[in-house]
Amino acid sequence: MNLFLTKSKIRSFALVTLFFSIHDMAQASEHQYLPRTSLAGNKTDTLQENSITTDSIKTGNMSTKELKKAAFSLVPSSYMLQYAGSIGLLSAGTGWDYGRHKQWSTDFLLGYVPKYDTDRAKLTLTLRQSYTPWEIKLSEQFTYHPLRTGAYLNTTLGKQFWYKEPDKYPNSYYRFSTRLRINIFVGQDFSYKIKSNSSYFEGIKFYYDLHTSDLYLVSGVQNKYLKFDDYIGLALGVKLQIRRK
């Protein structure tokens, strides 16, 4: 009987010991697993952070490139000098050539008008838009543009010129502004490409334009006695194209 109780106690003690051993092992295993999970999570978070950082750098680089491209497009691509054209005896300015084949051009010019029989010389400002639809290659260096056309706005600086007639004149006494002229033109040009890759300019363009203004055109239509050259003018110019690097 005593032996049976002793064996029963031993069996109970062994079961209790086994239970707590399994419990301790489970807790130890859980503790060992959690750090691994945390480590894996840290690695995942690190990879995600690296990915976000890389994407941010790429986005920043793209933004920088786009900004540089936009800033570069604001830099003039040509300089020009022009004789006559109803914008001054001599005019000088700068321009921007653009389009797939550089067929569009926007120019800004400052003109000089001698005083002639007036009190003083004058300055003019001109904004011109040109379009050259096609070209003909004459050789490796020479190109001919059979059509050059467009329009430009011209204003003469000075207090004696006005956009709207002063009150001292009767209503509609002057039908046109004395300060602002709207002009249209048509012409041709020849361009020469410079071979040297180290020169500042990549080409030279010579052009001529036949032009008229809103005032001259209306005067020519209304006054039949006027000759063709009374309301059609001639302009000659040279354009230096800057090498884009």
Walk me through what this model shows.
The chain has 245 residues and is of the alpha+beta class. It folds into two domains: 1-74; 76-242, Porin, CATH 2.40.160. Helix content is 35%, strand content 37%. It contains three helices and nine strands; from the N terminus they run αββββββββααβ. It has helices at 2-74, 214-222, 228-231; strands at 78-84, 90-98, 104-113, 122-131, 136-137, 142-156, 180-193, 201-213, 233-242. Strands 1-2-3-4-6-7-8-9 form an eight-stranded antiparallel barrel. Strand 1 and strand 2 (90-98) form a beta hairpin. It is globular, with a radius of gyration of 41 Å. It starts with a helix and ends with a strand. Mean pLDDT is 80; it is low at 1-5 and 29-40.
Shape by Cα distribution: globular
Nearest-integer average pLDDT = 80
CATH topology of the largest domain: Porin
Main sheet properties: 8 strands, antiparallel, barrel
| Tally of discrete structural domains | 2
**For this structure, what is the CATH class of the largest domain?**
Mainly Beta
Low-pLDDT parts are: 1-5, 29-40
Task: Report the β-strand fraction as a percent range.
Answer: 35-45%
Rg calc: 41 Å
Beta-strand segment tally = 9
Classify the oligomer: single chain
Terminal-residue CA separation: 108 Å
Which H/E pattern describes the elements?
Answer: HEEEEEEEEHHE
Structural class: alpha+beta
> Largest sheet, order of strands side by side?
1-2-3-4-6-7-8-9
CATH architecture of the largest domain: Beta Barrel
* Number of helices, counting only DSSP H or I runs of 4 residues or more: 3
Helix content: 25-40%
